Amino acid sequence: MGVALVTPFKNDGSVDYDALNRLVDYQLQNGTDYLVVLGTTAETPTLTEEEKKKITEQVVTKVRGRIPVILGVGGNCTRSIVEKLKTDPMKGIDGILSVVPYYNKPSQEGIYQHYKAVAAATKLPVILYNVPGRTGVNMTAETTLRVARECKNVVAIKEASGNITQMDDIIKNKPANFHVISGDDGIAFPLITLGAIGVISVIGNAFPREFSRMTRLALSGDYTSARTIHHNFTELFDLLFVDGNPAGVKSMLNAMGYLENVLRLPLVPTRITTFEKIRNVLRELNIRC
């Protein structure tokens, strides 16, 4: 289980680096296998370049090589991404997560050529990220498999298309050294039963111990125990995204005392009704709030 880290903010809107340290400690102490920095859940589009650099350096320093750190490096200008990968030192970074280019709505050939250029620009392992609900274009199974076969340092895909048939097609036909990672907490368990190797999780910010245990149980074939944990979180899965991500998980972390319930515009916190529902579920799960 990897965790897509949130970015804590203070009430004045500045980055709360102390809260970030606490959150990383919480992940290290509770079974998270790797961290993803500057992904969607981090509200990366709202961060300045200086903030991105400081956040990355702080997480790398805090982790001290104990678990891998994956850095989100994506965008809709291939040339800019290639330049960043070639010039940034990437000190302490173990791999990159790169989203399908958004807004431009490239063709499948364009997506392939984009990832071919990205892979050639770095020696680090590359994880593809397909999330058409955000990017406006779906990377098909055929394109994913083409990239996987031809770009040797492309090692996995975070699949969040919501299309189980597409994901299963990739799992069925992929090269042996290429893996599928669930990009959706709610389908992590069933996708592992089909052959995925885990999840890059949002809810893991709040529940790293429980969700990493579910992942490991599922990977070991103990589906009954894993299913029980999965079902315990079913209601929270829905509440996570009803008001958008990361509003849901930030409200959970706020109720648990880890950070202020602050997002940067254009994102806003969950509605009061959603927040109260989250608090009630946390109480039922015997989580302090």
Describe what you observe in this structure.
- By secondary structure, the protein is an alpha/beta fold.
- The protein is built from 13 helices and eight strands.
- An eight-stranded parallel β-sheet has the order 7-6-5-4-3-2-1-8.
- Strand 4 (95-99), helix 4 (108-120) and strand 5 form a beta-alpha-beta unit.
- Helix 9 runs antiparallel to helix 10.
Q: What strand order characterises the main sheet?
A: 7-6-5-4-3-2-1-8
Fraction of helical residues: 40-55%
Q: Work out the strand percent.
A: 5-15%
- Helix count equals 13
Task: Give the biggest sheet.
Answer: 8 strands, parallel
Given helix and strand content, the structural type is alpha/beta
The shape is globular
- How many E strands? 8
Could you state the order of secondary-structure elements as H and E? EHEHEHEHEHHEHEHEHHHHH
| pLDDT averaged over residues | 96
Low-confidence stretches: none
End-to-end Cα distance: 24 Å
Radius of gyration: 18 Å
Structure described in brief:
It is built from 13 helices and eight strands.
Topology of helices and strands:
Elements: E1 2-4, H1 17-29, E2 34-37, H2 49-63, E3 69-72, H3 78-87, E4 95-99, H4 108-120, E5 126-130, H5 132-135, H6 141-150, E6 154-159, H7 164-173, E7 179-182, H8 188-194, E8 200-201, H9 208-219, H10 223-232, H11 234-241, H12 247-255, H13 272-284
Parallel strand pairs: 1-2, 1-8, 2-3, 3-4, 4-5, 5-6, 6-7
Features:
11% strand; globular; 8-stranded parallel β-sheet; alpha/beta; 289 residues
